[in-house]
Amino acid sequence: MPLTARAARAIDAHLANRQPVHADEPLLVYHSKPLQKFHVTRWLSIFAASAQLGHITPHRLRHTYARRLISTGKMSIISLQKLMGHRQLDTAMRYVALYDEKVQQDYQPHPDPKM
Question: Partner of 28 at 20 to 30 A CA spacing, among 8, 41, 86, 112?
Fold first, then answer.
């Protein structure tokens, strides 16, 4: 996945401020152990609850990211496939289908609350 300049600066700041580590230690650690998926999921749930966003998971953020990339029209499905690490184009096409469903929902006329 491409690394933005902002993300690179954040990683540099993280590395400069963390405890000295061995060269082969993972980038993200928690209590001197590699950061695990459940840590991220738990913290994301806590942050989402405090922001009153409902249930959010790392996988849901991934889907949202991919769907937004496709919805801009600036990224081809082939580029999205590579970015998301999918071997099969059909897997990446799911994001297009999700976007198409969202467009259809948004297009449907909404009931007039005055009626």
Answer: 86
Number of domains observed in the structure of the chain: 1
pLDDT band, residue 101 (cuts 50/70/90): low
C-alpha to C-alpha distance for 29 and 21, rounded to whole angstroms: 10
Q: Is 80 a domain residue?
A: yes
Q: Is residue 27 part of a domain?
A: no
Q: What range defines the domain where residue 68 resides?
A: 54-108
Distance CA(68)–CA(106), nearest Å, equals 15
Q: What is the rounded CA–CA span in Å between residue 1 and residue 113? A: 45
Q: Which two tokens stand for residue 26?
A: 């993972």
39-86 confidence digits (pLDDT tens): 889 999 999 999 998 888 888 888 888 888 888 877 888 888 898 888
- SS3 string, 68-95, reads HHHHCCCCCHHHHHHHHCCCCHHHHHHH
Cα separation, 5 vs 26, whole angstroms: 21
